[in-house]
Amino acid sequence: MAAFVVGLVLLLAMSAHSDASYCVCNSGLSDGVLQKNIDYACGAGADCSAILQNGACFNPNTVKDHCNYAVNSYYQRKGQITGSCDFQGTATVTQTAPNAASGCVYQSSPRFDVLYPLSAVVGVML
């Protein structure tokens, strides 16, 4: 029986789904809404130093690009938990990295969806 469980765990681990995910601001929003997202994200734990003047992600210097960076930083720092990329319906999760200037890197963390199926099979919450 133990060999079966170990084999099943290995099979699930090999078939785990992992994709990098990013949070971006929705298109078509006013600069005021985008700025509110930046202000909230940067004030609530996002690392916004890269979008300050002379920062690696300052250019392109648009409210939309700065919003993308800020909400994504917030989303990553919150561990990609459900709801951390909503911003009152003005942001969304995507698997496509936002366009960025040379030297600007958007954080991403792959999501591994192996623990829930594994816990269902083994019968314990992981």
Describe this structure as you would to a colleague:
This protein has 126 residues and is of the alpha+beta class. The chain has 4 helices and 3 strands. The protein is globular. It has a 3-stranded antiparallel β-sheet with strand order 2-1-3. It has one domain. The longest helix is centred in the middle third of the chain and has 15 residues, at 63-77.
Please sum up the structure shown.
By secondary structure, the chain is of the alpha+beta class.
What's the number of helices?
4
Tell me the strand order in the biggest sheet. 2-1-3
How much helical structure, as a percent, in the residues? 25-40%
Bin the strand percentage.
5-15%
Please give the structural blueprint.
Elements: H1 2-14, E1 18-25, H2 31-43, H3 63-77, E2 91-94, E3 109-112, H4 115-122
Helix pairs in contact: 2-3
State the main characteristics:
126 residues; 4 helices; 13% strand
